[in-house]
Amino acid sequence: MNDEAVVKVALVSCGSEYAGVHGELESVASSVNAKLVYPEIEIDILDDIGKDFGIEAASPDLRLMMARSKAVVEGLSDVDGVFITSCFRCAEAAIVRNEVRRYINKHSELPVISYSFTERTTAATLLTRMEALTTIARRRHLLAREKQSGLTAGIDSGSTTTKAVIMRDNEIIGSGWVPTIKVIDSATEAFNQALEEAGVKQEDIQAIGTTGYGRFLIGEHFGAKLIQEEITVNSKGAVYLADTQKGHATVIDIGGMDNKAISVDDGIPGMFTMGGICAGASGRFLDMTAKRLGVDITELGALAVKGMEQNVDMNSYCIVFGIQSLVNSLAKGSTPEDVAAAACHSVVEQIFEQQLQEVDVKEPLILVGGSSLIEGVPKALGELLHINVLVPPNSHLIGAVGSALLASGYVEE
Amino acid sequence: MAEENNDVITKLVVTSSDTVLPIDAAMKIYESSTDIVIKETCFGTMVTGPREAVNKVVKEIVDLDKNHIFVKERGFPPGDDRRCRASRGGGSRPGFYFLKEEAMMLPMIGKALDKYDKHVPLKEIEHKKKLEVKDLQDIVESSL
Amino acid sequence: MAKVIIYPTNSLILSDLVQRFGHTPLAMMEKIKEKVTTVGVDSPPMNITAEEPKHGLKYAAVEVPAGVRGRMAIVGPMIEEAEAGIIVGESPMAFGCMGCARTNELTKYLIRSREMPLLELEFPKDDDEGQEFVYRIAEFLKSLDEVKGESEEATE
């Protein structure tokens, strides 16, 4: 990847130098061959930036953020993308950060990432985000691809499950789905399942794309042409499967370990957030609920749609305490249906509270990832947001399909 | 002794003088010491070297026009990669804006120091007070 | 000679005046120098690592943003070390060390909470105000000699 051109990323930040995360930002940028730049500004604009931009923030560094975003939009600073970041838990910064992000989105074509850090934020946490930012800046032409061509494979090495698909001439002809145990073994197994179903041999595959946590490892193992983080791949996969490649869309991916909420425009991810701190907001929570109810995970959804979440008192989103609440409810006589519904609601509500606040939800809302197959989840999400939730066919194979689709860009090359 | 050698400091000398130009300050440094490195910037001269030597030469410069030459220590040595404009991709370092703001106040501070030395008595300054509600009411009524 | 904490903590004018009238300014620059010249730490640009926000817990609770705590890890010990203080009202142009309004509120509060001589004033806008500004600071700094002299005599 590092043979590609350096991507210039404008750093529009407040507090990072004093929170001990600045070095992490520099380090992650250089790992994806990006360079952080501080947009040059006309010093005079600082006098009136509060009124010009419209937020009279008390903190001078936040006013500097507004001035820098203006410089980026007006082209004074020649950059390929923008990274907006400020301290977690600072209300003033959160207001400015959000408005600066909206402002740049509205007035430029630049990809933007917004993130709030703590002193514990590491380069590893930032990698997927920075990788997505530089990919969008670097490979717009690749992301413009709307149809799969040739014979390609996509493998999504997720934290919980590994998925593989084989596609030929814009159709899925084989798929595999296995729990992730050992990254390469599981990927091989999923890949072989897919190959067998498709009736083709590995050597016939013209290009392989990999994504997910294990993307680098399996990418190298299988000689993949495309090794790509999940934000880009899943955005593309979602609008492709939902057949909504043009215009706005919002993609929510509830994975086994983390979630993504991505606002997509013409198949290109714009603003996105990633969860990953709390298991209570992940597919794992639903998995645990199913086990406590003594049903298979595939049956949980059908139960949930029959239940009423209001009948169950849940006082925590936590995977330990929240599940305890569910168990207590069962002991008090709640039905398994109600408990299943409450679990789906809990996951969705936490995603809403923690992730959707920073993404402008625009229809269609496409729900993907394994959890989208649990019918109670899209139902709960639709009820919470008061919009129709679209679950495309093969939504659980999203990453693999997106990889196979994008990898076909390399077939002709 | 080794410790002394390690104690390298940088001072920023900002001149706001009618008689001493930054170049005079620079010349003074060039002729005074060999241990010292200087760098001229938009707002002043950065003087880097062993603490003793820097303090000595800075005092000599300030003495050229003491009320109109100002000094502060600087955290980063000049041209430090971590702060240098070139390696940061353009934007100025954060302290620059405030320094510029303060530099514009220096003629005023210089004049005040001259007056202080000459024991010029302080003028009574009338600080504006908030308008009384009664007075506001009068204004409103008179403009009706 | 008294150690005088200045606010804004990176002010050229205040640092100069304190020094000029015979005292030691406690300012951000020296602290930053200590940081950036620390051998073996490589956390650009200022060598502030994740440790500083933790040290900052002495001055601000964990719910206070990391950027505030990181700054307080540097400013806090200066406030503790100070024997007197000069606070000059907010300048809208102070970025970086002084770029966070929340840190600045806390810094001023902690300076005011110390039982020590303190002068508070505003940055001047014209020559008359400039004269008053310099006179008040000069007189304040001179008064520190007297106070200090007396207390030193008393302890002898």
TrEMBL record, chain A:
<dbReference type="InterPro" id="IPR002731">
    <property type="entry name" value="ATPase_BadF"/>
</dbReference>
<dbReference type="InterPro" id="IPR017676">
    <property type="entry name" value="Methan_mark_15"/>
</dbReference>
<dbReference type="GO" id="GO:0046872">
    <property type="term" value="F:metal ion binding"/>
</dbReference>
<dbReference type="InterPro" id="IPR008275">
    <property type="entry name" value="CoA_E_activase_dom"/>
</dbReference>
<protein>
    <submittedName>
        <fullName>Putative methanogenesis marker protein 15</fullName>
    </submittedName>
</protein>
<feature type="domain" description="ATPase BadF/BadG/BcrA/BcrD type">
    <location>
        <begin position="154"/>
        <end position="407"/>
    </location>
</feature>
<dbReference type="InterPro" id="IPR051805">
    <property type="entry name" value="Dehydratase_Activator_Redct"/>
</dbReference>
<keyword id="KW-0408">Iron</keyword>
<keyword id="KW-0411">Iron-sulfur</keyword>
<keyword id="KW-0479">Metal-binding</keyword>
<dbReference type="Pfam" id="PF01869">
    <property type="entry name" value="BcrAD_BadFG"/>
</dbReference>
<dbReference type="GO" id="GO:0051536">
    <property type="term" value="F:iron-sulfur cluster binding"/>
</dbReference>
<dbReference type="InterPro" id="IPR043129">
    <property type="entry name" value="ATPase_NBD"/>
</dbReference>
UniProtKB/TrEMBL annotation, chain B:
<protein>
    <submittedName>
        <fullName>Putative methanogenesis marker protein 6</fullName>
    </submittedName>
</protein>
<dbReference type="InterPro" id="IPR012025">
    <property type="entry name" value="Methan_mark_6"/>
</dbReference>
<dbReference type="Pfam" id="PF09875">
    <property type="entry name" value="DUF2102"/>
</dbReference>
UniProtKB/TrEMBL annotation, chain C:
<protein>
    <submittedName>
        <fullName>Putative methanogenesis marker protein 5</fullName>
    </submittedName>
</protein>
<dbReference type="InterPro" id="IPR012356">
    <property type="entry name" value="Methan_mark_5"/>
</dbReference>
<dbReference type="Pfam" id="PF09885">
    <property type="entry name" value="DUF2112"/>
</dbReference>
